[in-house]
Amino acid sequence: MSTSKSTPIELKISEMLSNIMNERGISKNKHTTHIANVLGITITHANRKMKGFASWENSQLEKVAKSLGVSLSDLFKMVEDSYEEKHAGKYIFNKEVLEGEITFSPDTERTYSAVKINDQWHIFKTDDIKGNDIYEESRQGVLRFSIESSVRDKSKPRIALLDDDKEILTTTAELLKKGPYKIDTFTSSEDLIARIQSSPYDGYILDWVVNDKSTYDVCKKIRESKKPHAMIIILTGQTGDFIDQEIAEAFNDFDILGFYNKPLRIATIQVNIDKYFRNRT
């Protein structure tokens, strides 16, 4: 005597229908009855379908799906998704750490493959890792992968002002604060250098001579900081061949954005600052 065997696909369909019926408030002991009533078949036949021993025809599935308020295509999509293994979180693609979701397709050859290396998923083009025995042995096909796009940081650019003339410092800061900038003021090079080392700024406006010493070393520390390409503007109220030579060296060594003589024309400086940051957004 032959015995019928359930098939994986029939069972998956039945499991999905059971899940939907549960969501619709149809108790588990009423599932078979609901199927029988919708299709006009016996309880026994409906029971065989729900256990995966009898195949489903598309027309039957469409009727049952409709009775539960879903389309046939939605039902098939639910069944397909139930087969999928997924990884949600960080993964590496093109040497970049991304946040998103990988949907695996382990039994199918795909254009992209995923390999777990040191507990971190890496996605490669399948052709690029062919011939690598270690990767070939452990790779999984990738059906799809998504990328979550993070919100861009729209915080105000931070600008440091350095000048030992407190009146000029206050006036300049008040005018620049009217723009989209966060302004911090310093009256000593040492204090600013300490801040550069811990939390560098996006831009700097430096008096060239502070407390009788040039700010050449400050410029050097800026270019050695974690933000080495920050904007630097130099101000000076002093003149002379030596001063001019020092400033020329700073321009050459540190890519200074601009040099302005005191008394200041803040409007002109602000135009250049606005242009600098606008070109970097």
From TrEMBL:
Gene Ontology terms: biological process: phosphorelay signal transduction system
InterPro entries attached to this UniProt entry: Bact_response_regulator, CheY-like_superfamily, Lambda_DNA-bd_dom_sf, Sig_transdc_resp-reg_receiver, Tscrpt_reg_BetR_N
Superkingdom assignment: Bacteria
Keyword Phosphoprotein: yes
Keyword entries, A-Z: DNA-binding, Phosphoprotein, Two-component regulatory system
Residue ranges of every copy of the Response regulatory domain listed in the record: 158-277
A molecular function (GO) term: DNA binding
Location of 4-aspartylphosphate modifications: 207
Coiled coil residues, start to end: none
Protein name (database record): DNA-binding response regulator CreB
Organism of provenance: Klebsiella pneumoniae
